[in-house]
Specification:
5 helices, 118 residues, 82% helix, mainly alpha
Length: 118
């Protein structure tokens, strides 16, 4: 087999490989389509529902005069940090959080929740 023929075969293999790779990526779902499902993943949903509930409780405490705006701002800041951590965890696991990550986030939320009640 001549050197030109071998080079032609290599080029053909390279083109076939590139075409197969392109086809695989073309069939993959868009990131946004999976992102909507991931936001409503049960563990993420539970953590985020708790954060929303704590937000309502903080606002209610301020309205009732049982908490100052400064105390509320501190608690909101802690909740934002928990939400940011939840998003970071989810971004490393295809939009999900593991049970152990959920447990860690819930422990942090429990601490904030205790502070709201005082």
């Amino acid at each position: 087999m001549s050197q030109v023929t071998r080079m032609g075969q290599r080029a053909l293999i390279a083109v076939m490989f590139a075409g197969a790779a392109f086809a695989a990526f073309a069939d993959a779902p868009a990131a946004g389509a999976d992102g909507q499902w991931a936001k409503s993943h049960p563990r993420r949903d539970q953590v985020n529902d708790r954060l929303a509930n704590q937000n309502r409780r903080i606002k209610q405490e301020v309205r009732e005069g049982e908490m100052t705006h400064q105390q509320a701002a501190k608690l909101h800041q802690q909740d934002r940090a928990i939400r940011k951590e939840e998003r970071t965890m989810a971004s490393t696991n295809n939009g999900h959080i593991t049970k152990s990550e959920q447990r860690a986030l819930n422990q942090q939320e429990n601490q904030v929740s205790r502070e709201i009640g005082h």
